[in-house]
Specification:
Strand order of the largest sheet: 17-14-16-15-19-20-18-21
Number of helices: 15
Helix content: 25-40%
Number of strands: 21
Radius of gyration: 23 Å
Strand content: 15-25%
Structural class: alpha+beta
Low-confidence stretches: 1-7, 184-211, 213-228, 300-306, 308-313, 316-325
């Protein structure tokens, strides 16, 4: 309680707590604890409003007392990006949940921001549908996925989650509930089953593939002319709650594919990956995903564990499997009708050669990040023809192999640097990699990092759209009450 009242006198702090309890209910408003932090910045209060109108009241209370607000979903990416300058009220969206307006056969669904993505998929699966969204963060809510514009393997065909947006309802900094694009009921009258299934660009407001804090507010003109207001809706994607508090999103949904096959091939060098990806894309097999896994190889002869031990016998670099130490795997997901998928898999194996293997199950690493808590996590975005150059640049700058995983078919991958690296070393690696990427229209973004690294390095690198981001912040949150400092440029 003393911490909560640090810059607000005790009586006012208690008064704010009572008001939050009156808005949200006594069990859903409290002083924050040590676990209620955003990238290391501890909040003062936690409020869990029971609906949009209660959430609006929380924001109005914050405005009246000049308090900052940071939204939180499941907290799976709460340590991504920059630490906010201040967190007064952490607005937990856990009760803004539900899947609405999703009758059988509908091509859209309106979903509460606090709904776990796995619950959304389970609900839609009852009518044999799904969101073409497979964010890697376990337990993530839809609002959190959109706030980070986080995407997984399916981004290759469907683009980022932002590309699936039809409309949103959100709260502005003053607590006004705004609807943009189409609501679920409006969209039902316009959409047809399977609409929006073409290959999406996956480019968010800052012109990137695969979101990062602050992408919202870059290039706001995305999807111009598709649906009135959708440009504004997509500003929220990747904004980390810095431009508005998402209440619900109306998303395109698709039929669950009847057949799925994964075709994998061991790979040894980034240049080989480049050649194989070009061959896959030229084969006309319409892949749903083209994923790469390049772990740091550990030559088996140097291990003290016998090569027959179960912990290593199934490794892709086991000599019994490949005859040479493989660096990783290139895996292609095919979706569609069972007979069609089987025929396409046969054609693809002919392209990839005798080392290709077809499976009905995804590899263990599929849809997972290569980094762990405490690592410095990087995201590299580059045209696919230059992906190999980016990986080589990262290896050269680091002085050895670096775990890399992601969508080789769309040029968006993640990499992991050891959390033990000193900040100045991480800074030099970023400088070297970015100097290679800038000429190739690519970017290297620090997704998450230890606090010392986060304070010492430029998380985003060059951002030509920063002036437009600054304009969007000034328009949507002129008093900087929403997640101040989370966006690039300290916005």
């Amino acid at each position: 309680m003393a911490d909560a009242a640090r810059s607000t006198d005790r009586l006012e702090a208690l008064d704010i707590t009572r008001k939050l309890a009156a808005i949200c209910g006594t069990p859903f408003a409290r002083f924050a604890g040590p676990a209620d932090e955003v990238a290391g910045r501890i909040a003062r209060w936690v409020a869990v409003p029971g609906g949009p109108h209660a959430a609006a009241e929380v924001l109005r209370l914050a405005a009246a007392h000049d308090l900052t607000v940071v939204p939180r979903g499941a907290g799976t990416k709460i340590d991504w990006g920059a630490a906010p300058a201040q967190v007064d009220i952490m607005l937990d969206t856990g009760r803004l949940a539900g899947v609405w307006h999703e009758p059988r056969g509908a091509a859209v669904a309106e979903i509460g921001a606090g709904t776990p993505l796995r619950a959304v998929q389970a609900t839609l699966a009852r009518t044999n549908r799904r969101l073409p969204v497979d964010a890697p963060s376990p337990g993530a809510t839809l609002g959190g996925v959109l706030a980070a514009d986080e995407s997984g393997p399916l981004r290759h065909r469907h683009g980022s989650p932002c590309a699936q947006l039809v409309g949103v309802r959100y709260l502005d900094a003053d607590g006004e509930l705004v609807s943009v694009g189409e609501s679920g009921t409006e969209a039902l009258g316009r959409a047809t089953p399977g609409s929006g299934g073409g290959r999406a660009s996956g480019r968010g407001p800052a012109g990137d593939a695969g979101g990062d804090p602050g992408r919202g507010g870059g290039d706001a003109i995305l999807g111009r002319g598709e649906v009135p207001g959708l440009d504004v809706a997509r500003l929220l994607c990747g904004s980390q709650g810095g431009l508005g508090v998402l209440v619900s999103a109306t998303m395109r949904v698709h039929a669950v594919p009847a057949g799925r096959l994964w075709v994998s091939r061991p790979v040894w060098t980034p240049l080989e990956v480049h050649d194989l990806v070009r061959a896959v894309l030229a084969a006309g097999v319409d892949p749903a995903a083209v994923e790469l896994d390049l772990p740091v190889p550990v030559p088996l002869p140097r291990r003290r564990i016998p090569p027959t031990h179960p912990s290593v016998v199934n490794r892709p670099d086991h000599p019994a499997v490949t005859g040479r130490p493989a660096a990783g795997s290139l895996v292609v997901l095919l979706e569609g009708g069972p007979a069609d998928v089987t025929e396409r898999a046969e054609r693809l194996t002919a392209v990839l050669g005798t080392e290709a293997i077809v499976s009905h199950h995804a590899p263990e690493w599929w849809g997972r990040y290569p980094f762990a808590p405490g690592d410095t996590a990087l995201r590299i975005e580059v045209p696919i023809n230059d992906l190999h150059a980016a990986v080589y640049a990262l290896r050269d700058a680091t002085g050895g192999p670096v775990p890399v995983r992601g969508s080789a078919g769309s040029g968006t991958v993640h990499a992991a640097l050891s959390g033990a690296l000193p900040p100045e070393r991480v800074a030099s690696i970023l400088t070297a990699v970015r100097s290679v990427l800038i000429a190739r229209r690519g970017r290297c973004v620090v997704v998450a990092a230890p606090a010392a690294v986060r304070r010492a390095v430029d998380l985003w690198g060059e951002l030509p759209t920063l002036p437009r981001l600054r304009s969007a912040k000034a328009h949507l949150d002129p008093h900087h009450r929403l997640a101040p400092g989370r966006l690039p440029g300290g916005l």
